[in-house]
Amino acid sequence: MNRSIRRVGVVAALMFFALLVNLTASYLLRGPGLLSDPANARVLQEQFDQPRGAILVGNTAVVQTQASTGRFNYQRTYAAGAMYAPVTGYYSFLYGRSKLEQAYNDRLIGTTDTDLLGRIRAVLSNQPAAGATLQTTLDAKAQQAAWDGLAGRKGAVVALDYTTGAILAYASSPSYDPAALAGEDMNAVQKAWTDANADPARPLADRAGSEIYPPGSTFKLVTAAAALENGWPLDQAVPAPATMTLPGTNVSLGNTSSCGAAEITLKQALATSCNTAFANVGLAIGQEKVKAQAEKFGFNTGFGGDLNSAASVFPSDLNPSQLAMSAIGQFEVAATPLQMALVTAAIANGGVEMAPYLVSEVRAPDLAILSQHGPTPVGTPISADTAAKLQDMMVGVVTNGTAQMVAVKGVRIGAKTGTAQSDPNRPNYAWFVGWADKPHVAIAVFVEDAEINEDLITGGRVAAPIFSKVLAALG
Q: Which of 92, 173, 175, 217 is an active site residue?
């Protein structure tokens, strides 16, 4: 009898111990996830009843929390909401969070280990814990210039300091007002969400970093880099016929303007944006070398951090005709404007690619710095020698090529225009990428729908003026 009781006792003790282990493991392993889960209504209610940290551009709070007498104790507000929405994201009781509101949620509500003292003080004072403040890297004038330049047209602009990776402008158009999703009237919030998702212009889409598009002739920078990295001499001539038949097909590839001669150098091919020359370069060096170079710049891998971008794409298993088209940024090549800004930045920065970032500091309510983000190299996709050659080639595009309209006296500027024509059922995409030495900035401009006659859509005509506006705002 005693033996049976002991067995039951041992089993009960083991079950009790297993329960304790499970509860402890659940708390340690699942707790943080449950607390950060946007669908956890109880946690959301608590968070909406405490002051959330601000998001700053310069010294201005573009997102902050104000006391409210409505359903919640506090209400999130968004100054110039649509212009900054692709960066700040939204904070909604019904639809959760996005962008910086999501990436830094624990800091904004003050629940990380580094915020422990603040939480203890809040408990002792019987006051709600205040969240940390995010200091962004954005330049208000550059952001405004990018937004005004897009003028409501579908498109995006990314500008960054190529020596640090700090994002100076990050605009996507059309956009939405996050305040409409952060309100206390749930019926109005639901309507705003439904309307935004039903809008064919897709205002919730982040065209700067979460959407990929054919980069057109701006990708010729990658093809040129691949050629130079694999020993292509600057003075080596490449065939540049007015038209060429793509290998294995009856399809003809032509140029939008004269390339200057039947055979030209790589520098002249970039200056004139010669399709047939770059198609021949791609065929000469082969798909593996072009793909490898694209991947060194970041293609086929998303950028993480506080941007968490979509992965740009360079395809595999290409036949010769597909390779020829891919070498000029068409076929199935697709890139985010952020990616093309980073390609340009690496060239301008002597071959070193810096990790892009949007938040430079996280500060506690007492202004103590909780964390900082400094310049971080992510790789060297090209050598310093190749970078210098590409810089000279891009300067040639401005002085003697398709980007002369962005020249500024006393400023060294390199650029590349682009027009993507990969789908006959939509307007051409207009691209413009470039860098300047005063200030140290790389800029990518993408216009998805220029809202003009298709015959007039070119990167130089449509996207270049926006580049100039952003550069002037930073100058």
A: 217
* Residue the block writes with tokens 């940024």: 329
Question: 3-class DSSP state for residue 249?
Answer: coil
- Return the domain boundaries, the chain: 216-359+373-474
Q: How far apart are CA 211 and CA 201, in angstroms?
A: 14
Q: By C-alpha distance, which of 208, 206, 177, 209 is closest to 193?
A: 177
Phi, psi of 283 (to 5 degrees): -65, -35
Does residue 326 have an active-site annotation?
Answer: no
Report the distance separating Cα 323 and Cα 329, nearest Å: 10
The rounded distance, in Å, linking the Cα atoms of 471 and 442 is 9
Q: Given strand 155-160, what is the order of strands in its sheet?
A: 167-173, 155-160, 440-447, 429-437, 413-420
CATH of 216-359+373-474, one of 1.10.3720.10, 3.40.710.10, 3.30.450.20, 3.40.50.970: 3.40.710.10
Give 10-residue mean pLDDT values along the chain (475 residues). 67 72 58 55 72 96 93 93 97 95 94 52 54 97 98 97 98 98 96 98 97 96 98 94 95 92 96 96 97 98 89 97 97 97 98 97 94 94 98 96 94 95 77 96 93 66 95 95
Output the 3-class SS for 101-156: HHHCHHHHHCCCHHHHHHHHHHHHHCCCCCCCEEEECCCHHHHHHHHHHHCCCCEE
| Rounded Cα distance, 221 and 390, in Å | 8
